[in-house]
Amino acid sequence: MTTSFPPRIGGTERQRPALKYANPKGECSRIGCNNSLRRAPDGWYGRFCNPCSRLLLEHGDFNTTVPRLKDESIALLYQTTMDVVLDMVRKQDREIAGHAWSIQRCEEYAGRPGMGDPLLALRSDTWLYHHYIHHKLKTQEQAPLDVLLHLVGVVGVTQLGPQYFATPDQMDLFLVKRGLGHGLPSIRVSASGKPAPHGRWSMRRARLLARKLRGDWGLGPQSQGRVAEEVLRRVGRG
Ligand SMILES: [Zn+2]
Question: What is the CA radius of gyration of the chain?
Fold first, then answer.
């Protein structure tokens, strides 16, 4: 079988179907779904049918969607985290020293040649991660402090409001979609010569970048306590 697509970087296209998940009829593993799995020459691809896989890939869950920053409870956590951290930055609080180092490193990476080139973004995990932050710092010309506050805010939502996420995958998708933005730009070029639109996040990359985001922008226990206190105060219960 031949496809019209050029090979993926690193030859990472799936070579063999995941037969271990398929039942003998090749049906989707989601309870209540009777769709068939995509047929491969000697078995079926994957565990779930295409529509069900799409849901998991987009939202990390069959029944709920990745929360938006504008959703009321999410917006409260996001804004409060940013406000508290901005206050800590102004007071040069030692607990956010790590975040200062992180944004400094991001700025240093953003100054390297080729950082904005999607063709090079997959060089390494570190390169991929900084490619997105380069986009904020250089292409969109956001101030480093604003980028820092946004990323700390997004990670803070997952730390302070885990109850708003249906699955760990949904939390990781929230971090990359709301924190970093669109999926990786496609390296394919359409027939008209224009670059193809941004691709979907792959779950593997979403998990990987989410881990980096948590490492760089996660709040320590004391800062989390401060944000939680402030949230209570704002909703009038503290
Ligand atoms: Zn299905």
Answer: 21
Contact 167, 139 (CB under 8 A): no
Distance of CA 14 from the midpoint of ligand 1 (Å) = 20
- Residue 174 CA to ligand 1 center (angstroms) comes to 23
Furthest-apart CA atoms within the chain: distance in Å: 64
**Does residue 80 lie in a domain region?**
yes
pLDDT digits (tens, 9 = 90+) for 133-177: 999 999 899 999 999 999 999 999 999 999 999 999 999 999 999
Distance 68 CA to ligand 1 centre (A): 25
CA of 170 from ligand 1 middle (Å) equals 18
Ligand 1 geometric centre to CA of 48 (Å) = 5
Which residues span the domain enclosing 169?
72-234
Domain count, the chain: 2
Whether 66 is in a domain gets the answer: no
Question: The whole model's pTM is what?
Answer: 0.85
